Amino acid sequence: MNALNESLPPPADEPFCEGARQLPVRGLRQGQVFEAPDWVAEEVPVALEFNGISHAVMLATPLDLEDFALGFSLSEGILDAAHELYGVEEVVSPEGITLQLEVASSAFMKLKERRRSMTGRTGCGLCGTENLAQVRQDLAPLDSRSVWSAAAVSRAMAQFREHQSLQQFTGAVHAAAWCTADGDVRWLREDVGRHNALDKLIGALAHNDVDASQGFIAVTSRASFEMVQKAAKAGVSLLAAVSAPTALAIETARCAGVTLCGFARQQDLVVYSHADRISLGN
Questions:
Q1: Alpha carbon of 56 to those of 64, 111, 173, 276, 277: distances in Å?
Q2: How far lies 16's CA from each of 10, 12, 28, 176, in Å?
Q3: Domain map of the chain by residue range?
Q4: CB-based burial of residue 94 (10 Å sphere; 0-12 exposed, 13-18 middle, 19+ buried)?
Q5: Which sites are catalytic (predicted)?
Q6: Does the structure show a pLDDT above 50 at 128?
Q7: From start to end of 158-258, where are the E strands?
Q8: Residue 179, SS3?
């Protein structure tokens, strides 16, 4: 077997990083050849089965998979509420991981009515969608009267690094965080896929009965329209992204009642929708 497929034991003086493996690497650094072990993020196929029926296969980091299962189900509209998920069994095989979800019969019947193949790849939220009508979900606009401060968004972004343990080891993963109104990061999930990280976060909030509408979501990626949809489904009226949004994301945010911020870095940000909900003053 190729040595690159073997996980090396961590040195005694170095902590173990869940969700990553150590592999031997060789390269150049400041003009000098080096050889050393390096941490790389895990990425495995994760299949989701609902009441025994396969529905989706995503490439994901094998952490917080119960959160992922619940968050994906809620954000995709398969479940209307967390209590419709009765249980998740994780089955590991040489091919990957299967999450066997047992869901309420009403949710399963709804799923069967709109069955679609969603075999995906990292960072792809629409792979396998069968027709254009399935792209956008019908979302009632959020009627939020919250006013957020730019300072709170900046404070949240400044806290990201200390909470991203997997990113610090590998430099290869995205994060999504739920933050309080004053910018404290309370919940954070990581994954090689930005959509997956957000689904994991939404699942964690639902598992822990967090009223997501009382805070906002910050992500370490660009903001796609599907990420806006997921935030809106979770009842979150502010989504702040480190990078840019797309035009469709902005349109979706305006229709869904979501305040969308991009280029949220240090003290800077750009507000693309519902700007009246962001206080830009010092």
A1: 17, 12, 21, 39, 36
A2: 6, 9, 25, 22
A3: 3-40, 44-134, 148-279
A4: exposed
A5: 124 (cysteine persulfide intermediate)
A6: no
A7: 174-180, 185-191, 215-219, 238-241
A8: strand
Name the token pair of 36: 């050393």
- Longest distance between any two alpha carbons in the chain, whole Å: 62
Look at the domain 148-279 and name its fold. Answer: Cytidine Deaminase; domain 2 (3.40.140)
Higher pLDDT, 118 or 245: 245
Do the Cβ atoms of 134 and 116 come closer than 8 Å?
yes
Single out the catalytic residue among 17, 124, 179, 255: 124
Confidence of residue 202 (pLDDT cuts 50, 70, 90): very high
Please state at what angle helix 194-207 crosses helix 225-233, rounded to 10 degrees. 0
The answer to whether the 44-134 and 148-279 domains have the same CATH topology is no
Q: Average the pLDDT over 32-48 and give the result.
A: 96
**The predicted structure's pLDDT at residue 251:** 95
Q: What is the phi/psi pair of residue 102, to 5°? A: -105, 120
Is 17 one of the catalytic residues?
no
Mean per-residue pLDDT over the chain, rounded: 88
Structure tokens at 111: 């799923």
Average pLDDT of the segment spanning 181-202: 97
52: how many CB neighbours lie within 10 A of its CB? 9
CA distance 70 to 77: 11
Structure-block tokens of residue 78: 């398969």
For residues 254-264, give the mean pLDDT: 96
Quote the CA–CA distance of 156 and 251 in Å, as a whole number: 25
- Residue 126 has a pLDDT of 44
Look at the domain 44-134 and name its fold.
Ubiquitin-like (UB roll) (3.10.20)
Residue 164 in tokens? 């991203």
